[in-house]
Amino acid sequence: MTTTLETDVLIVGGGPAGMMCGITAAQFWPSRRVLLVRPEEQAVVPCGIPYIFGTLGGTDEDLAGRAPFLAAGGRILIGRIASVNRDARHATLEDGTRIAWNRLVLATGSTPFVPPIDGHALDGVFQIHKQYDYLDELLSERLPGVATLAILGGGFIGVEFSDELRKRGIEVHLIEQRPRLLGASFDADASEAVAARLRALGVKVHTGATVAAIEAQADGVRVAGVRLDNGGRLSVEAVLIAIGTRPDTRLAGDMGLTLSRSGGIWVDGFQQCREDPQIFAVGDCAHKQDFFTRHANHALLASQAAAEGRIAGMNLYGLKLPRTNAGTIAVYASQIDELAFGVAGLTEHSARDIGFEVFTGDARLPDHHPATMPGTHEVHCRLVFDANSERLIGGQVIGGPTTAEILNTLAVAIQLRATATDLASFQFGSHPRLTAPVHPIVAATGEALRRRLGTA
Amino acid sequence: MTTTLETDVLIVGGGPAGMMCGITAAQFWPSRRVLLVRPEEQAVVPCGIPYIFGTLGGTDEDLAGRAPFLAAGGRILIGRIASVNRDARHATLEDGTRIAWNRLVLATGSTPFVPPIDGHALDGVFQIHKQYDYLDELLSERLPGVATLAILGGGFIGVEFSDELRKRGIEVHLIEQRPRLLGASFDADASEAVAARLRALGVKVHTGATVAAIEAQADGVRVAGVRLDNGGRLSVEAVLIAIGTRPDTRLAGDMGLTLSRSGGIWVDGFQQCREDPQIFAVGDCAHKQDFFTRHANHALLASQAAAEGRIAGMNLYGLKLPRTNAGTIAVYASQIDELAFGVAGLTEHSARDIGFEVFTGDARLPDHHPATMPGTHEVHCRLVFDANSERLIGGQVIGGPTTAEILNTLAVAIQLRATATDLASFQFGSHPRLTAPVHPIVAATGEALRRRLGTA
């Protein structure tokens, strides 16, 4: 006989999108039962994964808490959904357990992309899976003894891993196809600042280099090195593939849900699927529209996933909040050593590529004042404005510990469609130990206006 | 014979408002001559003054740079303006030098308020003047040897001084008339957190206590202690008065300019004086209208002063930027030990006092994630929304080093009139080493909406 569980809301997947949707649903719809099903007993914080290997020092130090969800009244079931019957409104676990639902949220996440190159399945080739068991084995059994390692992919994850792994004493080769690191996210000077810092820390940075194959040792089993398409070769004992992830839409595909042309599950502004307003998709598995262009945006970010989970969670049984997903702005930040860096919205080059006519402004300031204050870092802020509307469309910040919150200020300004006029004389607070003397956004906006007026 | 200098723009005063106006004027109007006259050879960073006595360790460590102004093409003259002839468009220095101008900017600042209590002129009673010489003498000659000191006034400046002076080994009594510290700026729980931290650091905090008199030693010259109006008495060797400052409008008064009923120079939205559109006033000497009420706002902040300097500087010869002063939001932040705290806009109690019907939300989160990340502090964010428009009207943050930039994000949201709906699912960036897992603004907005909906 089949066991049948009943819930109101069934959430499939326990990453940031699923968990945030669950917390929000339980909080905003307290009379509804919310059940989250995920395969992992222990879930890790995805953006904390690189830090397991250095700063945090352990997989158990990177656990995503379930307490807020449970405290809100949600329940968690460990298992894998094998199939969903949309008409009958139930899902079936691999063990045969049936779950009846009236709202289904797909938060199935993404899986690492592995390029189809020779040797990708050799022993010693690692991927960045988000599973606790995989990561814990990597940390405690696979990596110890590895003295040299190549990372394929010089995006944020590759850059973060290279810094964390070099802290373990591993000689790290960071290999990026494009001419520079973080090329998709940053203008050239910021990429160069990050590359310079990594080199100073002992990381071997190889840009404009493509790995043609991963080579095996004589045993045909273990990694011996990587061959580059320019004929070069690097001897390494291990390879970490950090090229990106792809939406995991297997379940959605089996259910016959529409996928976007770029691969994610098609969703409307409330994260509802095309076929059925009682089925939602959030996070990496869901299609992302770009805030500026409406084209697909391929940045799969935990913060964006959580925002989508929140929108779906609030609107499961009616629009408690008439808030739709306005599209992905892509607000990133990271830190290598003491150097923090990030971007909100468009960079100068990406804006021009899209076709925006832009004007830009730069400011370089200390992040405390006067600059004699202990712990002072330089902040470099570059803002990008659309020349026709004068609206802020992006910003890049390189600085100290406050970098990410300065970017969040930019993110708010972009979302509220602030103009250069708005920002040029905005009121900001300042304090010697906590901020620059002039807010970098105000200073950079001033320079942008002066360049535009021809007085810079 | 009288020496006559000629300039286009004459700025009187070299604090944040004057200096920022000068930089902006020189940058936006490069064909105009900009001359700044100030009495001090060396100018200090005003908000850095408390830190001279502890963290910075020297007056020379708190100098306000003149380099950006000079680099922009401005000139500085050390001297005091004795009078201004508005009709003839010239000013006269105390040494008789005459300066012809066609735009005049008054940035004469403020002076410490000294309450008319017995003993206020005794030897050992100090004020917080912004002059280099006064501060340097205080640091190097007056304070050494002082073992016990009372600070009158438990606002931001009093709180900051008490932390810095206790670092020197001085036993500090902090005396505040109101029932709690920072009462004008903070809700009660935040005041209590600051008081508790100060007490833990050894500062003696006396709230609800008024100083009736400062008592003299037998010599009738030096301070012996302070007498409280509840009959108590504290033996101290010195007293620091930190009750606040008053606009310095002597020159404006002599010129016959209109003053506001609350004491500052009357200015319009472009910082122009009532009588003459070629005369501007900026910073502490200028009247401040509150962003929310249009009543006078008595917060005299360097950041606000600088914003006014920027508005005037851009618009001296026509509206290069059609930006007016929207009124004071009052964005403050400070830090005691590792505890940072601040406010942007209205607190819950000040909003209710004004007559707003409000709803509020609180969030407590780590400022890194997971919370096992080294250097993690708790952030407590409280947001205040107007119940009718749903607009954000204020926020209070207690946390770590990113506190002030979170407040600046709130300041932008307030100025752009963001609603709870806007903020509840806003996109923010997150990073384990740099931010909370969920942005405190999003979390607190969510809680506010749930309280409002009755599901919290």
Automatic annotation (TrEMBL), chains A, B:
UniProt key word Cell inner membrane: no
Keyword Nucleotide-binding: no
Record GO terms (molecular function): oxidoreductase activity
Superkingdom as given in the UniProt entry: Bacteria
Domain Pyridine nucleotide-disulphide oxidoreductase dimerisation: 339-435
Cofactors demanded by this protein: FAD
UniProt family annotation: Belongs to the class-III pyridine nucleotide-disulfide oxidoreductase family.
Protein name per UniProt: Nitrite reductase large subunit
Organism expressing this protein natively: Acidihalobacter prosperus
